[in-house]
Write a structure and sequence with these properties.
InterPro entries: AAA+_ATPase, ABC_transporter-like_ATP-bd, ABC_transporter-like_CS, ABC_transpr_LolD-like, MacB-like_ATP-bd, P-loop_NTPase. It comes from Luteimicrobium xylanilyticum. The protein has one domain: Rossmann fold (3-Layer(aba) Sandwich), CATH 3.40.50.300. The strands form two sheets. A six-stranded mixed β-sheet has the order 6-7-8-3-9-10, with helices on both faces. Strands 2-1-4-5 form a four-stranded antiparallel β-sheet, covered by helices on one side. It is an alpha/beta fold and 231 residues long. Helix 3 crosses helix 4. Strand 4 and strand 5 form a beta hairpin. It is globular. The chain contains seven helices and ten strands. The structure holds adenosine-5'-triphosphate (ATP). Adenosine-5'-triphosphate binds next to strand 2 and helix 1.
Length: 231
């Protein structure tokens, strides 16, 4: 079996606020391995530690203890600059509110991601064209981001996240603001990406996403528990 593309081992994260406030043990020893092409949903109540875990998986935060390896790199051994490069090369992010740049066109929104990922300028236009076709936004390529509908914005967010063909796609409530049809479209795009070998990890309140994933895990008070039995 192939090595996991993402491996968290005994990860804890304790927030230690200043003053008399007691520390918060947001993650209490999380083990997680995800392989290429797997679709994993992590569900949990508000305050369970989902954002904390996503921040660590996305290299936006570091564990208090334990280890996290991404695409074969032990992240504790990576320099600050190395983390930025690793994030750009290995990760795609999709957030609930899409973070689309409203005053840039759809095509520019995608091209900016390629620039950050240091893709040569000469290669960018073809990649933008290809990914906009995949998410069904070819006809909106010249439209400003702020003029898109909610579903279109989320498809643009996905286009940006997948245009570099990252080995790992992390999504935070990716269907939270969408109606059923648009949510299905988003999950269909994730399916396609997983079929291309990307590991897709979705963090959500929505138990329906557990039914979509290959594997569903429950985060409860900082513990990541066994797969949920999906009805
Ligand atoms: N910067 C911080 N300082 C102190 N405590 C924090 C901080 N960030 C999160 N927490 C606490 O850590 C715990 C886990 O928070 P986290 O945001 O990871 O949960 P969540 O599952 O994402 O919640 P939600 O679904 O409501 O966004 C909560 O008790 C929260 O109050």
């Amino acid at each position: 079996m192939t090595a996991p593309v993402l491996r968290a081992a005994a990860v804890t994260r304790t927030y230690a606020p200043a003053g008399d406030v007691p520390p918060v043990h947001a993650l209490r020893g999380v083990d997680l391995e995800v392989r290429a092409g797997e679709r994993v949903a992590i569900v949990g109540r508000s305050g369970a530690g989902k954002s904390t875990l996503l921040n660590i998986l996305g290299l936006l935060d570091e564990p208090s203890s334990g280890s996290y390896a991404l695409a074969g790199h032990e992240t504790a051994d990576v320099t600050h600059a190395g983390r930025d490069a690793l994030r750009a090369d290995v990760l795609g992010f999709v957030f609930q509110d899409s973070h689309v740049l409203g005053h840039r066109t759809v095509a520019e929104n995608v091209e900016l991601k390629l620039a950050v990922a240091r893709v040569p300028r000469a290669d960018r236009a073809a990649l933008v064209t290809d990914v906009l076709a995949r998410v069904g936004l070819t006809h909106r390529a010249g439209a400003l981001g702020r003029l898109l509908s909610g579903g279109e914005k989320q498809r643009l967010a996905i286009a940006r996240a997948i245009v570099t063909q990252p080995p790992v796609l992390l999504a935070d409530e990716p269907t939270g603001n969408l109606d059923g049809a648009n949510a299905d479209t988003v999950l269909g795009l994730f399916d396609e990406q997983a079929a291309r070998g990307t590991a897709v990890v979705v963090i959500t309140h929505d138990p329906r996403l557990a039914a979509w994933a290959d594997r569903a895990l429950v985060l409860d008070a900082g513990h990541l528990a066994s797969a949920v039995a999906v009805a």
